[in-house]
């Protein structure tokens, strides 16, 4: 049994075969998924998918790349949606210094507001981090994000930051990059994260694992992530799949 903790089945890349993708996921052993909404278009679709499928849950948040488009109206909307019984987290949120659509100070302000919202509605958070680790950790500490905890989604940073994340009540989620032949950091991280804080994901349709790298990713491929982590940790696929599923159910408070 597998739990893909971060999917974007709500994006246009799946418009033509969404149902078939979900059938393939089921066949691969994927029992649960969290569909992450991050803007005006994808948030309602995340809720819609969660309502239509008993094994699908939703997260709602505002992506840092689009932080400049977020107003108090969107924040109020997220707060209203947080009351939905299938919404299990706020996010993805964070900082992205790779793209320059939204200025850094705007990203930080929007990030702060979403952490504050998560604390208000008592939901954990999902962090998007691109080239901004130190600022993210500082901001999480300043806002006392450990009160709700969260997920470092598709963690791709140095192992040296892992303990700081764990100390703040965060889980480490690994995706396709852990299978990439030239990606040393995720492999090192996979070996050191305590088993009870490890999660797996695809971030589909992005970051497809080897041997599908460069193609459209889908939830069924989370099995490849689990297999690689099992190999790296010198344990069984069954242990990784069972433990990461139990971790995700506990984190998202899914009974």
Molecular structure report:
The protein is of the alpha/beta class. It has a single domain, classed as TIM Barrel, CATH 3.20.20. It has 9 helices and 8 strands. The chain has helices spanning 18-27, 42-52, 72-81, 104-121, 133-142, 162-167, 184-192, 222-232, 237-251, and strands spanning 2-7, 30-37, 56-60, 87-96, 125-130, 150-152, 170-174, 198-200. Helix 8 packs across helix 9. The chain is globular. The relative contact order is 0.15.
Which features would summarize this protein structure in a list?
9 helices; TIM Barrel; 8-stranded parallel beta sheet; 255 residues; alpha/beta
Query: In which order are the strands of the major sheet placed?
Result: 1-2-3-4-5-6-7-8
Low-confidence stretches: none
Sheet-strand content, in percent, reads: 15-25%
Structural class: alpha/beta
Number of strands: 8
Question: H/E series, N to C?
Answer: EHEHEHEHEHEHEHEHH
CATH-defined architecture: Alpha-Beta Barrel
Rg value = 17 Å
- Quote the distance from N terminus to C terminus: 15 Å
Helix count, DSSP H or I runs of 4 or more residues: 9
Q: Judging from the principal axes of the Cα atoms, what is the shape?
A: globular
Average pLDDT metric: 97
CATH superfamily: Metal-dependent hydrolases
Number of domains: 1
- Under CATH, the topology can be stated as TIM Barrel
Using the coordinates above, name the CATH class: Alpha Beta
Helical content class: 25-40%
Query: What does the largest sheet look like?
Result: 8 strands, parallel
């Amino acid at each position: 049994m597998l739990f893909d903790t971060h999917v974007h089945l709500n994006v246009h890349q799946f418009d033509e075969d969404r149902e078939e993708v979900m059938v393939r996921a089921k066949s691969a052993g994927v029992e649960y998924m969290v569909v992450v909404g991050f803007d005006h278009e994808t948030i309602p679709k995340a809720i819609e998918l969660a309502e239509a499928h008993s094994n699908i849950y939703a997260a709602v948040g505002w992506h840092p790349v689009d932080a400049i488009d977020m107003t108090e109206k969107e924040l109020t909307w997220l707060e209203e949606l947080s009351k939905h019984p299938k919404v299990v987290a706020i996010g993805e949120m964070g900082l992205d210094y790779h793209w320059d659509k939204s200025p850094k100070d705007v990203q930080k302000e929007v990030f702060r507001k979403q952490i504050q919202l998560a604390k208000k509605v008592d939901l954990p958070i999902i962090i998007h981090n691109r080239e901004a680790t130190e600022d993210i950790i500082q901001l999480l500490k300043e806002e006392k994000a450990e009160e709700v905890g969260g997920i470092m989604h598709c963690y791709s940073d140095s192992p040296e930051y892992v303990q700081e994340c764990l100390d703040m009540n965060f889980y480490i989620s690994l995706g396709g990059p852990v299978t990439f032949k030239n990606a040393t950091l995720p492999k090192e991280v996979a070996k050191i994260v305590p088993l009870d804080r490890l999660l797996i994901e695809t971030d589909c349709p992005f970051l497809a694992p080897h041997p599908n790298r460069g193609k459209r990713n889908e939830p069924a491929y989370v099995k490849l992530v689990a297999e690689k982590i099992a190999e790296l940790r010198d344990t069984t696929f069954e242990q990784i799949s069972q433990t990461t599923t139990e971790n995700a159910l506990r984190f998202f408070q899914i009974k």
